[in-house]
Amino acid sequence: MRVLAAMSGGVDSAVAAARAAEAGHEVTGIHLALSRNPKSYRTGARGCCTIEDANDARRAADVIGIPFYVWDLSDQFHEAVVEDFLSEYAGGRTPNPCLRCNEKIKFAAVLDRALALGFDAVVTGHYARLSEGPDGVELHRAVDAGKDQSYVLGVLTQEQLRHSLFPLGDSPKPAVRDEATRRGLQVADKPDSHDICFISDGDTGGWLADKLSDVNRGGAIVSADGEVLGTHEGSWRFTIGQRKGLRIGTPAGDGRPRYVLNIEPVSGTVTVGPREALSVSGLDCIRPLWSGAAPTSPLEATVQLRAHGEEHRAVVTPSAAGFSVALLDPATGIAPGQACVVYDGTRVVGSGTIAATVRG
Length: 360
Prior knowledge:
Catalyzes the 2-thiolation of uridine at the wobble position (U34) of tRNA, leading to the formation of s(2)U34. The chain is α/β, with parallel strands linked by helices. It has three domains: about 1-190, HUPs (Rossmann fold); about 215-275, Adenine nucleotide alpha hydrolases-like domains (SH3 type barrels, Roll); about 280-360, Translation factors (Elongation Factor Tu (Ef-tu), domain 3), CATH 2.40.30. The protein has helices spanning about 10-20, 50-65, 75-90, 95-115, 160, 175-180, 205-210, and strands spanning about 1-5, 25-35, 70, 120-125, 130-135, 135-140, 165, 220-225, 230, 260-265, 270-275, 280-290, 300-305, 310-320, 320-330, 340-345, 345-360.
């Protein structure tokens, strides 16, 4: 097959491209230029979105012996990922920019262009597995549970899965680094990327304060019973479940820490309370995407609510607008805007965006 290898400049995508070439595919490497001004994005060799990363990707392609190009998708990235991130925070929700990047950039813009150019598939360094099932291509968790990325791939359609390759799904991360060393890839010991790539210094709150200073200028911090405890300079500085940085002068009566329970962006009101008040027993999810046939009746499953969060046993009930989730294992710190990915064992059944939570 003719395949396009998306090379971020990190060790995972480099080894994925090398494995694809070794398997006999005709591989072309590409690096995505996602910043309109590279100096405004994160600096340092962290595996995504910097000038250093582009150079690392080019060197890896040279070692592998494949053609290499840089694709400028900065305008699409800014609109689909950066602007979405800002609007979600301004609306009091907590987005996942890496999931949105996979959905809108790596497996939409890139794959669409790849197919138009005559490529058969896109190969990436994501840790996930694909297999054929009765309803089409199935997306499964990776063997390395600590590196599994099926959650951020849960937004992919059947068409996208049919044209994707994930060569690392059966490998533990240490083995991938060892392989990179054996192949002479200089990125073998390069640190993994964890921060949000378009926030150069990792200070999300400060970045949001600069971008959203005219959207929400502040409001009150109140207790669950409405007592005003303090003020803040912007509700987008907070996320559900946050404990640090509340700067409340009045201590709780029982001396225990307070957590953010709710964010109301219109009035700017941030409600805080005890940890147990964060317990969520149910979810309402919108924008459903089912991997295969959509369920027509309630199903017992597990759900994952954060990129590296634990699984929760649940009953998922489809509806006209999306699906509801009754959590058999209550969760804490869950916020609207996050993704809910539904699993049957290791298989991704579908995903949706959390629109509301049920407390208690």
